[in-house]
Amino acid sequence: MKNHLTTMRNKLAAVILLPLMLSACASWEPANLTTGASESEVIAQLGPPSYRIPGGEGAILEYNRNPWGQATHLAKFDANGRLLSYEQVLTTRHFALLTVGSATKMDVLRTIGHPSETSYLPRQQLEVWSYPYRENNAWNSIMHVHFDQNGVVALMQNTPDMRFERDGLFGFFGN
Q1: Quick one: how far is CA 173 from the chain centroid?
Q2: DSSP-based three-state secondary structure for 13
Q3: What is the DSSP code (8-state) at residue 162?
Q4: By C-alpha distance, which of 121, 153, 132 is closest to 72?
Q5: 103-112 burial string, b = 16+ CB within 10 Å, else e?
């Protein structure tokens, strides 16, 4: 009887969650933005950003889909409020732009956006920002960016994202 109830619960959860997950994905279709568009035009097309990050020359609008979406898009603007670029930044190429020993928290925010999770390692005295992403569009990974007490990147560590293993994504529904 218990196995039958568990099976029914899993099926019910799938029926309820699948349409929600698909509709969430549909709202994140690739944008058809034109370089030079105004900030208001970008917001009209994409909706309100998750965050607004002050940039060196202009603002950065962050569209964050984590923790499960494994993507963050940044719309970067010049000093006149015109779109310079719009791209998915949770990539190996963007992580490589962060220099251990010199990149600051603001550099990280301007390069890859806000983390999906933060933690602290008291023994090492490191703050950790974690970014789930699809490494090379193939592997479910998490990049952990470790900051020292001065807010400077001390270590970057890439690990597999175990939430997507057999018992990870739907394991919370039972066996």
Answers
A1: 24
A2: helix
A3: G
A4: 132
A5: beeebbbbbb
Domain ranges in the chain?
A: 1-27, 31-161
User: With contact defined as beta carbons under 8 Å apart, do 50 and 71 qualify?
Assistant: no
**What tens digit of pLDDT does each residue of 38-82 get?**
999 999 999 999 999 987 789 999 999 988 889 999 999 999 999
Distance CA 96, CA 91 (A): 9
Q: State mean pLDDT over 147-164.
A: 95
CA 59 to CA 86: how far, in whole Å?
Answer: 12
Q: What is the C-alpha to C-alpha distance for residues 41 and 115, in angstroms, rounded to an integer? A: 26
- Give the full edge-to-edge strand order of the sheet including 117-121: 117-121, 126-135, 139-147, 153-160
Rounded Cα gap, residues 144 and 129, in angstroms: 6
Whether the CB-CB separation of 112 and 89 falls below 8 Å is answered with yes
**What is the model's pLDDT at position 159?**
95
Alpha carbons 135 and 161: distance in angstroms, whole number: 10
Give residue 60's pLDDT.
97
